[in-house]
Structure formats: structure tokens, C-alpha cells
TrEMBL record:
<dbReference type="InterPro" id="IPR012349">
    <property type="entry name" value="Split_barrel_FMN-bd"/>
</dbReference>
<keyword id="KW-0560">Oxidoreductase</keyword>
<dbReference type="GO" id="GO:0042602">
    <property type="term" value="F:riboflavin reductase (NADPH) activity"/>
</dbReference>
<dbReference type="Pfam" id="PF01613">
    <property type="entry name" value="Flavin_Reduct"/>
</dbReference>
<keyword id="KW-0503">Monooxygenase</keyword>
<dbReference type="InterPro" id="IPR002563">
    <property type="entry name" value="Flavin_Rdtase-like_dom"/>
</dbReference>
<feature type="domain" description="Flavin reductase like">
    <location>
        <begin position="18"/>
        <end position="161"/>
    </location>
</feature>
<dbReference type="GO" id="GO:0036382">
    <property type="term" value="F:flavin reductase (NADH) activity"/>
</dbReference>
<dbReference type="InterPro" id="IPR050268">
    <property type="entry name" value="NADH-dep_flavin_reductase"/>
</dbReference>
<comment type="similarity">
    <text>Belongs to the non-flavoprotein flavin reductase family.</text>
</comment>
<protein>
    <submittedName>
        <fullName>Flavin-dependent monooxygenase, reductase subunit HsaB</fullName>
        <ecNumber>1.5.1.36</ecNumber>
    </submittedName>
</protein>
<dbReference type="GO" id="GO:0004497">
    <property type="term" value="F:monooxygenase activity"/>
</dbReference>
<dbReference type="GO" id="GO:0010181">
    <property type="term" value="F:FMN binding"/>
</dbReference>
Length: 166
């Protein structure tokens, strides 16, 4: 057990704390001037049914978010359990992020990853500054669900798979 009180925790401990919460991983992507841009994002969450809203938190240091922020349509693909290489590629600092990624763009410019368990085509709704991140709220305009595809699980910095309870 690790405990910290009275603000006596640094960012490393905070990262460790946040990592205890398992999440999925999304590919947050769009087409800018004909070029696929995007990033891996585990901060995806559902927000509202009416209107249909989701959110992603992006670091204020992100070089990719200012590009995605210019777009009218954005794709969110909830990655599958065999998408670890895709998640790593879409988070890479160098090289062609989409090089080994099987992706497709809609006519409206949303970019999706093939083999994902969910595609959400989204329009920008609202951005909220929050500390060293921005909360990007998006309105869903179209979706495709692939219920038989198992999602990737991100937990304590590792990519994992769902397992049935005993
Ligand atoms: C599994 C995983 C989840 C990530 N989730 C987020 C996230 O929710 N928000 C974020 O800003 N960056 C996240 N990142 C980092 C981005 O994918 C990317 O590496 C970062 O934005 C730096 O690239 P950029 O400067 O091109 O944006 C994640 C990376 C990985 C591997």
C-alpha cells in the first residue's frame, strides 16, 4: 500500500494513482489537408445521452491536438485487444504514426482504425481548460458498433485483455 496526505505527492505518484483505473484506448484521428493525423487517447469517456456527447482529455503540450482542433469531423475508434501495436504507433513521437495502421477516412474527414470495437464520428462541441490538459467535448454524429470485437484494456501502463471472472 502507498499513501500520501496533505498534497505530499509528486507527478510520478499521481500517474501511478491514475494508472490504477483501467480504461480502454481510443484512436482520436482526422484528415487534415488529406493527411491522417491522430493520437492514442485513453482518457475517453461517455458524457451525455441527450445530446450525445463524449470527451477526451488532451495534454496542452500535444502537437497533434491543435491540428485536430481545426477539423469539423473527428473519428474515435475504440481499439481492440490486438491493437497494442496501433496504440504504440499512434503515440509515437517520431516516424509515420499511420504507417502500419489499417485506417479509413470518411468523406467528411473522420479517420477510423479497422478492427476497432466502436467507431464514433464526432463534431467539436466544447473545449474546457483543465490544468495541464484540455477537456475536449465532442458530439456524436454517427456510429458503428462491432459488439463481437473484444476491447483493449489499459491498466498501470500495460495493454491487457478482458478475462472472464472465475
Ligand atoms: C495508451 C496511451 C494512452 C494515451 N492517452 C492519452 C490521452 O488520453 N491524452 C493525451 O493527451 N495523450 C495521451 N497519450 C499520448 C498521445 O498518444 C501522444 O503520444 C501525445 O499526445 C504526444 O504526441 P503529440 O505531441 O503528437 O500529441 C496516450 C498514449 C498512450 C500510449
Amino acid at each position: 500500500m502507498i499513501t500520501a496526505v496533505d498534497d505530499q505527492f509528486d507527478q510520478a505518484l499521481l500517474r501511478q494513482a491514475f494508472g490504477c483505473f483501467p480504461s480502454g484506448v481510443t484512436a482520436f484521428c482526422g484528415l487534415l489537408d488529406g493527411v491522417a493525423e491522430g493520437m492514442a487517447a485513453s482518457s475517453f469517456t461517455s458524457v451525455s445521452l441527450d445530446p450525445p456527447l463524449v470527451s477526451v482529455c488532451v495534454a496542452s503540450t500535444s502537437a497533434t491536438w491543435p491540428k485536430l482542433a481545426k477539423l469539423d469531423r473527428l473519428g474515435l475508434s475504440v481499439l481492440a485487444d490486438d491493437h497494442a501495436p496501433v496504440a504504440r504507433s499512434l503515440a509515437s513521437k517520431t516516424g509515420d504514426r499511420f504507417g502500419g495502421v489499417d485506417w479509413v477516412a470518411t468523406e467528411s474527414g473522420a479517420v477510423f482504425v479497422h478492427g476497432a470495437t466502436l467507431w464514433l464520428e464526432c463534431a467539436p462541441f466544447k473545449c474546457i481548460e483543465a490544468g495541464d490538459h484540455e477537456i475536449v467535448v465532442l458530439q456524436i454524429v454517427a456510429l458503428a458498433i462491432y459488439p463481437d470485437v473484444a476491447p483493449m484494456v489499459f491498466h498501470r501502463s500495460n495493454f491487457r485483455e478482458l478475462a472472464p471472472t472465475a
